[in-house]
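Below is one such record:
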Amino acid sequence: MSSSASSLPDVSPFPERMELSGEGLVLRDWTEEDRGAMPELFDHPDIAYWTPVVSPFDEAAADDRLVRARQLRAEGKVIMLAVTVDGGAPLGEVMLRRAPEGTELGYAIGPAHRGQGLAARAVRVMARYAFEVLGVDQVILELEAENAASMAVATKAGFRLLDVPLITGEEKGRAYELQTWGLDRERA
């Protein structure tokens, strides 16, 4: 990992409102109107298993996620955007997190919307934002090697496995080991 990926480039707050477009997608802010759609997207065994998203995910969890997303953005730590094709109905989420280990991206696509390349496209759009607006040199994905779908997304989005130690921990009562995948500005 490059030294610039290891440091926090700029911890100023993110814009209060955001919309990014490209690759046939519109990544936009979550709204109160999205509350009802969020459980259908996030209350799924795959998302519960592979991500830190709360489970079960109901409307109360949606309310909490909306509040937390706004708070983390205002603090300059995390951006969570709804993945859409036209700015309308959310199909999933893409996230950017500033952390000591680097600028990390993450995603979750609702089960009914998988198989369309949405995750890889959303990750590439968010990576461009990180490179062009935030000025970072590298973005990372932290993925479990057993998560074949996420490995496919990383590869399709142009990421490569980095030669760095595994990240180990426990969440939701199960141990995990995360590999770090990186995409450099020059390769994007």
